[in-house]
Amino acid sequence: MVFVDSYPKTSKLVRSEFLVAFVALGIGALFGVVQALHRTGVFRGFVSSADYYTILTGHGVLLALVFTTFFIAGLFTWAVANSLERELPQRIAWSAFWIMLTGTVLAAVSIIGGLVGAPSILGHDLKADVLFTFYAPMKAHPAFYIGAALIIVGSWVAGLAYFKSLWEWRSENPDERIPLQTFMVLTTMLMWYVSTIGVAVEVVAFLIPWSLGLIQNVDPLLTRTLFWYFGHPVVYFWLMPAYLVWYTILPKLAGGRLFSDPLARVVFVAFLLLSTPVGFHHQYTDPGIPSGYKFIAMTNTMFLLLPSLLTAFTVVASVEHGARQRGAKGYLSWLRNLPWGKPAFAGCMLAGLMFAAGGFSGMINAGMNINYLIHNTIWVPGHFHLTVGTAFALTAMAISYWLVPQITGKKLRQRSIATLQPYVWFVGMAVMSNAMHRAGLAGIPRRTAEPTYDEFAFEGVAGTVGEMRIQIAIGGFLLFVGAAMFLIVMADTLLARRGGTLSVNSNIPEPLSGADHSPRILDNYKLWTAIALLLIVIAYGPPLASMVADGLFAPGSPPIPV
Ligand code: HAS
Ligand code: CU
Q1: Which residues pair with 513 in a beta bridge?
Q2: 16, 43, 258, 507: least CB-packed within 10 angstroms?
Q3: Closest Cα to residue 81, out of 192, 164, 177?
Q4: pTM of the model
Q5: Is 446 an annotated catalytic residue?
Q6: Is residue 560 part of a domain?
Q7: DSSP code at position 390
Q8: Which ranges constitute the DSSP H helices of 275-366?
Q9: Ligand sitting nearest the alpha carbon of 283
Q10: In a domain, 557, yes or no
Q11: Which residues 6+ apart lie within 8 Å of 71 measured at CB?
Q12: For atom 2 of ligand 1, which residue has the closest CA?
């Protein structure tokens, strides 16, 4: 039976969540190409340099916050319904959707308000050019922060719907192991609950009152710290859904089965434990945080590589198993026996391949001393376009080719565009991110419309600055084409009539080593959450306490003389 016929209500919810995600993707991608052409100087006719930052904020917020959150909500909704075999509690799940949508509209309106020169509302200019990391001292209209808060609150409510489904399922199946997909969703949500506390406190206690004029000052160090307490785990909130796809769906697409259910559970538990006590690796250059605590964050970050390295092993082994099931022989020639012409498979594999590169640039970011070389350079956007911009985004697009038919009952349309699309993305990203990394090594800054300032001459370490600039522009343009191709396929599929039987279904094959091989303690959420909290207290307790002690709104320390 097709998923949409088994779970019509849940399918409607997933469709709505995907729809918002796809609209955000379209506008975000458009902003992306505008700014890539602008900052490389290839074409500056779309916006002025002053508006560049508004476009950049829109690009980051719509893609990294809205596209991701709504797509993940849709994927998780499908995964929980599929693996627990039930409709999700509709009232809670739909409330989550509407809360998140209201937040998105508020945030989007305040960003676009800045672009069109909207009149002031509530005594403040309607604008938000504070970038997607939105910490102080840059200030946006209160509507932006209220919108961001609502998106987060909505995601909390969505999590409630997943947990409620588990409790219902549990009362009917008291002794069974939590199905793997649901296990992955719930572990991700627990990590999300623990980590979003930071940004919730930042926004509700500081940024909203400050932007409303109720308090005059905020402490940038304290609010940045609260932001990054959330700002690192959020990247795993993007990555873990991609892993859910790579672990549970990709082996099936390769014609095989997941290598090990226990290893998959260990990986997700490791993320719950270690995702949060590492946030200082975004603040290595911030004064006011003792080096010892930066060192603790660096050590934890290096441990946090482990679950991804385990994933590389397990996922590749599962795909290889699939290839061998299809008759492959030889050490590497099995790679040829894979369905590279199927867009869902090819997209996930190319996303994985690029993530291997993004993971390595992440290791360089994480080293406390080498970080000084690349921090605030365009190397960092190079890194995150491989991770969130490909490991997540390309996986999301690829799996839509497989999932959207099942939540609509309609066959995928425009197959030849779909087949080509992951390769276009891959080539565009390879060109753009490689040049961004090299440009970062040459010292070219990120987040600026005028990277050369007053004609400052950067010296390329590998390649010339002019060549890198052109590659960033060409790569950015190809990515825009890739996003447009994806949206054409989706629009045509969603608008088509239903007809014919689907060749895909949501059944997930049993892993080679199943849940019965994994120790029951892995499913003990209380234990893992308690340890996660303990690690956070050790990593964050003393530095946070001292930031609070020196004055909550205005630190007592004198400004650094220049
Ligand atoms: Fe990062 C900055 C460190 C992972 C996103 N990161 C960012 C920012 C973003 C971001 C958005 O330590 C910028 C924030 C801002 O605006 O300032 N990052 C890391 C480390 C990892 C890492 C150590 N990042 C991610 C992921 C992201 C993401 C995942 C989004 C989804 N990152 C940093 C640091 C900074 C940073 C510093 C601050 C830099 C600064 O100075 O500002 C690790 O988790 C990476 C581990 C990954 C691996 C790769 C394993 C390989 C796999 C591939 C399997 C292959 C397959 C296919 C399936 C070790 C799993 C095979 C195919 C065949 C053909 C065989
Ligand atoms: Cu990080």
Answers
A1: 260
A2: 507
A3: 164
A4: 0.97
A5: yes
A6: no
A7: I
A8: 291-303, 305-325, 343-366
A9: 1
A10: no
A11: 17, 18, 21, 241, 396
A12: 380
- pLDDT tens for 238-294 read 999 999 999 999 999 999 999 999 999 999 999 999 999 999 999 999 998 999 999
Annotation says 59 is catalytic: no
Write the CATH number for 43: 1.20.210.10
Distance, CA of 518 to CA of 104 (rounded, Å): 40
Task: Using the mean position of ligand 1's atoms as its centre, give its distance from the Cα of residue 387 in Å.
Answer: 5
Please spell the DSSP secondary structure of 65-82, one letter per residue.
Answer: IIIHHHHHHHHHHHHHHH
| Beta-bridge partner residues of 306 | none
Q: How many residues in total does the chain contain?
A: 562
Which of the following is catalytic: 385, 437, 438, 469? 385
Considering every ligand atom shown, identify the ligand nearest to the alpha carbon of residue 239 and give its number: 1
CA atoms within 13 A on the CB side of 538: 14
Q: pLDDT tens, 135-187?
A: 999 999 999 999 999 999 999 999 999 999 999 999 999 999 999 999 999 99
How many Cβ atoms from other residues are within 10 Å of residue 501's Cβ? 7
SS3 384: helix
Digit-coded pLDDT (tens) for 281-326: 999 999 989 999 999 999 999 999 999 999 999 999 999 999 999 8
**SS3 call for 466:** helix
Q: How far apart are CA 419 and CA 400, in angstroms?
A: 13
What's the rounded Cα separation, in Å, for the pair 25 and 498?
A: 25
Residue 519 has pLDDT above 50, yes or no: yes
- H or E segment to which residue 170 belongs: helix 142-172
Q: What does each C-alpha distance from 67 to 23, 259, 291, 343, 418 come to in angstroms? A: 8, 31, 36, 20, 19
| Ligand closest in space to the Cα of 301 | 1
Determine whether 232 is an active site residue: yes
Binding-site residues, ligand 1, Cβ < 6 A: 133, 235, 238-239, 246, 281-282, 301, 304-305, 308-309, 311-312, 315-316, 349, 352-353, 355-356, 359, 362-363, 365-366, 371, 375, 380, 383-384, 387-388, 391-392
In a domain, 161, yes or no: yes
Per the structure block, which two tokens stand in for 262? Answer: 């226990």
Atom of ligand 1 nearest to the CA of 243: 60
The reply to whether 555 falls in a domain is: no
Ligand 1 atom at shortest distance from the alpha carbon of 285: 41
**Tokens standing for residue 414:** 């425009």
Q: Note if 401 is an active site residue.
A: no
Strand partners, 121: 124
Total domains, the chain = 1
Q: Which one from 3, 384, 401, 540 is the annotated catalytic residue? A: 384
**In whole angstroms, what separates CA 539 from the centre of its chain?**
24
For 420-459, give the secondary structure using H, E and C. HHHHHHHHHHHHHHHHHHHHHHCCCECCCCCCCCCCCCCC
Is 365 within 8 Å of 280 (Cβ atoms)?
no
CB 124 within 8 A of CB 103: no
- How far is Cα 280 from Cα 229, in angstroms, rounded to an integer? 8
Residue of 67, 235, 295 with the most ligand 1 atoms within 8 Å of its CB, for mutation: 235
Residue with tokens 């809670």: 92
* HSE of 507, CA atoms in CB hemisphere, 13 A: 9
Distance 25 CA to ligand 2 centre (A): 23
Name the β-bridge partners of 445. Answer: 377
Q: Are 74 and 14 in contact (CB under 8 A)?
A: yes
